[in-house]
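User: Could you check the structure of this?
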Amino acid sequence: METSLNRRTFLARTGLATAGAGALAAGITGVAGCRTDDGAAAQPGTSPPQVSPFDPNDWASVRAQFDLDTQLGQFAAFVLASHPAPVRAAIAVYRDSLDRDTVAATADEVQLEDAARGAAAEYLEVAAEEIALTDSTTMGLGLTYHGLRLRPGDHILTSTHDFYATHEALRLAAARTGATVQRIPLYDDPASAAVDQIVARVRAGIRPATRLVALTWVHSSTGVKLPVRQIADAIGEVNRSRSEADQIRFGLDAVHGLGADPTSPAALGCDMFVSGTHKWLFGPRGTGLVWARRDAWDSLAAIIPTFSGPSFGNWFDGGSAPFVFGLDGTPGGFHSFEHRWALTDAFEFHLAIGKDRVAARTQELATRLKDGIAGLPNVRLVTPRDPALSAGIVCCDVAGRDPLEVVAQLRSDHRVVASATPYQTSYLRLGPSIVTSPEQVDAAVRALASLQ
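Assistant: Sure, the predicted structure tokens are below.
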């Protein structure tokens, strides 16, 4: 069932089509009415910022699209993303348009949101109608787990490694429905975590009353990347002997995988895929999405009224348009429009580089960092060295040092920007990404080696 225009058709009809890398080099893509015949951005009263020419095949050119301080080694850029040039330019045009004439600027609101949903669908290799737009991972988790049709006595299985947002969303959902939540460890030592061990522990945690398994793709606490496909297969095996009413749904917090691992949600095998887009994707701050498999739609309900056309139609004439997750799962109300509409540009930026190349680059730099840390006598590597069990996050422990103190010293003495994991057991965390160079990785290893 089609609920929105085909993305390419829409872009062609409204003049939003881009010319690939050449259009990105002009500094802006996907912005209505802001391009002249020669490809330069132009709109009355608007002057998008000047940017460096963009060659998606050159990593130095990719890094040059960001306004991050080049005197710093940016290993915490994923925490809250810096906007690359095309996203900054799109936001600037939309913001200026809204400031100048809000009625005219929002005339194409539905189409621009459709374009953002379509860009996300192209990137994720799914249908646009399966994607709801949100403001963050936390919002998406709350909407998804509260929207799940749980019953008193239902069992929810999660892990001890998940972040506050998952644990709290599940606690609140269980309190409302009468379900119970169980947290289990999936590994004892993250550095030696193994696929078979993780899958076996999930399988052992499933009960006859289990209706939801809620996990995180890449743990921000340790850097472990779960074998999601194998977990999904184990859940599927259990589901084959269950009635439709007793099926287990598999929800995934994907925020530290999206933009760092190219695997599509359908290939991962989860039922719900929840992520912000302002971390490894380097999308507009304050944006996010939820994907839900079509055969899981009947298990979900909208929590916040949407502003979709079918929903308004139901209100006007008492109709009963069918539930379409992407539209009906997207909260209504006024949003930070300029950021949401610029999602198109964020996905196009990654697609121009190639999401497989982005993932390979992230893995290359993370492996280089882990290999360097593994040779240091004063630092213990926490994240698995196996690329199959890790992505871009690298966690470590500096002997005898508090992680927050180390973060401060790395910045002040070595101009390396790191972070500390916000958990009861806290580690030093570094995240090399497309804004990081191999030389900066080596400098970070030298800095860690110098710590006493």
